[in-house]
Amino acid sequence: MASSSAASSSRALRIGIIGFGPFAQFLAKTMAKQGHRLSATSRTDYSQRSAEMGVTFFRDVGEFIEASGNEVIMICTSIMSLSEVLKSIPFHRLGRPTLFVDVLSVKEYPRSSLLQVVPEDSDILCTHPMFGPQSGKYGWEDLKFMYERVRVRDHETCSSFLQIFQKEGCRMLEMSCKSHDKFAAQSQFIAHMIGRILAEMGIESTSIDTKGFESLLQLKKNTENDSVDMFSGLFVHNRFARQEMENLGSALEKVREGLVQRMLEEQEKKPIQENDKNTN
Ligand code: NAP
Questions:
Q1: Alpha helices in 106-210 (DSSP H)
Q2: 39/57 Cα distance (integer angstroms)
């Protein structure tokens, strides 16, 4: 893993977005503010929303590919829909070599999928902005941005894209998709898992909440804001998450057993205490 300066050159880019959901719209706001020319396509019709944001919207993915002349195409679909979405892209209609970027929260899966489908003369950059509409609401300063240059020949376009995040003050972390998935299984997946468990339990605020409990309520709220598709994807398409799920299960059992053991020890002591009380 290396924290790097990521990029030197910077210029306005023509960026096309596939999958214009909540996270894509969040990124697009900053990209538009920086002067990049944006277009988008999505399963849902976001024509109105796009017009408000100054983004050209295409209902048809083929027209999007042909008409927009994008230098960068950013894949922002859910993890669970990636393969379906990639199948729907008519790559043969690309008018020029293009930099394909993905922002999915798992990394080995889009890396291998993009290597299979992206034309040989186009480049691939896999990224994960480690923040979202909530944590990045007031700016991206000091928020982490992970990336791997999977196949990059047009360094100038790639640098200009990375500059979008560097300019906003992100901490740029260049690392392999494999390392990302190992770390994310131990951190992000566990956070989402605990948040979902707390939601399943239906925890609610009380009049005597401790700071610790307030953090748990916040965790529950944060994970519920993310889609079930995203949560499922963090597990289904990160091979390291299975082991972390096992670890979580055995840790819960170990902690439970420890407490039950203490309870049994305490119950065994009781008759002695009661005898003591009677003799006093
Ligand atoms: P999401 O639920 O993970 O993805 C929503 C996007 O996926 C929408 O554009 C949606 O299109 C598209 N989609 C879902 N199912 C589809 C299908 N069957 N066919 C075609 N498109 C489909 O929510 P998100 O928060 O916007 O995340 C988008 C991506 O960014 C995900 O890969 C996520 O892992 C990643 N990411 C999210 C965050 C975050 O904080 N939210 C942070 C970093 C990375 P329509 O809207 O047109 O239906």
A1: 108-117, 155-167, 177-186, 188-201
A2: 6
Report phi then psi at 34, rounded to 5: -80, -5
241: DSSP letter: H
Name the phi and psi angles at 147, rounded to 5: -155, 155
Q: Is the pLDDT higher at 15 or at 272?
A: 15
Ligand 1 shell residues, CB under 6 Å: 19-24, 42-44, 76-79, 81, 84-85, 103-105, 129, 132, 226-227, 229-230
Q: Whose CA is nearest to atom 18 of ligand 1?
A: 81
Quickly count: other Cβ atoms within 10 Å of residue 14's Cβ.
Answer: 15
217-270 pLDDT, tens digit each:
999 999 999 999 999 999 999 999 999 999 999 999 999 999 999 999 999 986
What pLDDT is stored for residue 209 in this prediction?
A: 98
**Residue of 87, 99, 80, 88 lying closest to 63 (CA atoms):** 88
Residue whose CB lies within 8 A of the most ligand 1 atoms, among 45, 46, 78, 221, for a mutation test: 78
Is the predicted pLDDT of residue 1 greater than 90, yes or no? no
Using CA atoms, how far apart are residues 220 and 227, in angstroms rounded to an integer?
13
